[in-house]
Amino acid sequence: MQNTQLVAAGIIQQVLASGRNLNQVLDEMLRGKAAWAPAQRAALQDLSYGTLRFYGQLQAVLSQLLHKNLADERVRFLLLVALYQLQYSKAAQHAVVDHAVRAVQTLNPRVSGLANAILRGFLRNREALLEQAAQHEEGKYSYPQWWIDELRAQYGERSAAILEAGNRHPPMTLRVNRRCGTVQEYLAQLEKQDIAARLIEPGALQLDKPVAVDKLPGFFDGMVSVQDAGAQYAARLLDVHAGMRVLDACAAPGGKTAHILESATVQMVAVDKDEKRLQRVAENLKRLKLDAQLLVGDAAQPEAWWDGRLFERILADVPCSASGVVRRHPDIKWLRRRADIAGFAAQQLDILRALWRLLAQDGKLLYVTCSVFQQESEQVIAGFLAQQPDARRSPVALPENSEGQLLPNDRHDGFFYALLHKIA
Predict the structure, then answer these.
(1) For a pLDDT cut of 90, what percent of the chain falls above it?
(2) Which of 11, 36, 120, 288 matches a 20 to 30 Å C-alpha distance to 417?
(3) Residue 298 exposed, middle or buried by CB count within 10 Å (0-12, 13-18, 19+)
(4) Could you tell me which residues come within 8 angstroms of residue 269 by beta carbon, excluding any fewer than 6 positions away?
(5) Where are the beta strands (DSSP E) in 154-265?
């Protein structure tokens, strides 16, 4: 446990100091820990994700226990990891404290006594400390204040539920490959493996408990993929039919590309500006036995990769704040800044304008973000429609009377969808 605490603290410090993606930092660290057992690797992931998920609350608690600033940042992050364990894990409390104090001794022996006092002080006064932390919104919700303010301004009373949903563990949802069999047939296979699941959307099965993909029947034969139920709406809303020429303009990692190809036999072109991430699209298609033309290119600059042939359908799953998927990526809450949202919105509008030229008359473009900020959704679409006289917005069939905005809940992540029709 001691080593795991130290490594997790180092990962969190690196993420917050450098602004790098948690998944990347964690993956790099694990590649250097080849000898670690699966349980230890899973523990490291839980500590890294969990501490960042509740970072605001944990910081508020630690600040109460410290009488002055802790100069050694390494120790501060280690204490945050230990506080996360004491509050949210099932690890024995005495073991968490003992290992953390010993870890502090390796970093800075002069403050090991202070570390011991802080952690034991938390155990003695947990309820009062948590209650006091919740007096401030960053401590209550574990989000930056600007994020809380933005959601409250947009959603009013619903903002609290959105914030709370983002702090829960995400569900594991499967997409059944309709080319390989029916949902009911796959449910029967899961039942044989004692994997409990239920149908929550057409083609979407939510597992009662997450499992490793190698435990899923037929996963490596392409029978099923892991994909959030909210993300599965993209292929259905795009309204593809056999023989169409279709573009997925920001394709990586390829879940939506594959879902479209599972739905209909189309001429698929998948583009992404990141060559390494495009390789993941290739790997997913290979596993699912699907074919597409893969191109490295920037969706905002199609002249560099487009062959001049128009598309009847375009999926524009554009780069965004990812504010709708923070339960899967808790580092996003602490890496984003308010000013970033306007930057994303400008980029999204540029992509929309560029891709519109590639769409055939009577064609449809589906604009998608995994965001809950209206600046990246309704405001972008309104700006585009005001400039584009041949564009009309069509209604989309989504649950909860959302009018395009899916808010995160127990069934799906947060997504925004707008279907645009090119008229003569």
Answers:
(1) 93
(2) 288
(3) middle
(4) 245, 246, 247, 248, 292, 293, 295, 311
(5) 173-176, 197-201, 204-207, 224-226, 245-248
Gap between the Cα atoms of 373 and 255, Å rounded:
23
Measured between alpha carbons, how far is 9 from 99 in angstroms, rounded to an integer? Answer: 13
CATH number (3.40.50.720, 3.40.1280.10, 3.40.50.2000, 3.30.70.1170) of 173-226 reads 3.30.70.1170
- pLDDT at 193 exceeding the cut of 70: yes
Q: Which of 180, 250, 320, 370 is catalytic?
A: 370
2-142 in CATH: which number? 1.10.940.10
Chain centroid to Cα 243, Å, comes to: 32
User: pLDDT grade, residue 33 (50/70/90)?
Assistant: confident
Cβ atoms of residues 330 and 22 within 8 Å: yes
Q: Are 373 and 321 in contact (CB under 8 A)?
A: yes
Q: Would residue 180 show up in a list of annotated catalytic residues for this protein?
A: no
Are the beta carbons of 358 and 306 closer than 8 angstroms?
yes
Apex CA 399: angle with CA 394 and CA 401, to 5°? 65
Domain spans, the chain:
2-142, 173-226, 233-422
Of 368, 365, 345, 347, the C-alpha closest to 355 is: 365
Compute how many other C-beta atoms are within 10 angstroms of the C-beta atom of residue 382. 13
Residue 415's alpha-carbon distances to 12, 247, 360, 372, in angstroms, are 27, 20, 26, 7
Percent of the chain with pLDDT over 70: 99
Q: Are strands 293-296 and 311-317 parallel, antiparallel or unpaired?
A: unpaired
Say whether pTM exceeds 0.90: yes
CB 371 within 8 A of CB 377: yes
Q: Which CATH class is domain 233-422?
A: alpha beta
- Secondary structure class of 285 (helix, strand, coil): helix
